[in-house]
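Final report, closing paragraph on structural work. Over the funding period we assembled a curated collection of sequence-structure pairs, and we close with a single example.
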Amino acid sequence: MDRQTNLGTALLAAGKTEEAIRAYEKAVRLSPNDARVENDLGTALLEENQPAKAIGYLEAAVARDPQRATYRQNLGYAYQRKGDLPKAMALFQEAIKIDPKLGSAWINLGNALAQTGQFKEAREAYLKAQALDPTDPRVKAVLAELDAIEKGSAAPSPKH
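Its predicted structure, as stored:
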């Protein structure tokens, strides 16, 4: 199983997402109760823009390891990509409650808030992410997009 997950990770890093998915699917068959493998497969499916399919694996990962904040954050991102912003925001908030230092959860919460027009709350979430890692380029990008929105431009795009 470890060989398959390592292979999946290497393939994903090389941009070979479809092959990575096949490796992760094999790993899930070899170890069907491993939350990490289910999370890896779910995130690879998100890379292939398959949020509906990813959700099942990510929900299984959260169910198996409910205290892993990254799994909840990834599940929230899948719901965000699917368009269920209330569910996504609830999962991001749960992830933050488990791990308040999870910058990607703060960023994705900010993106979802901005998508629903809650710009003040979005900025607060982005600033919390920025306080955690002032060098994170994602935070700089979303804050610049939010500034543009507030001046009358386009909406921020989700960042993972």
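The two ends are 26 Å apart (CA to CA). The mean pLDDT is 92. We thank the funder for supporting this effort.
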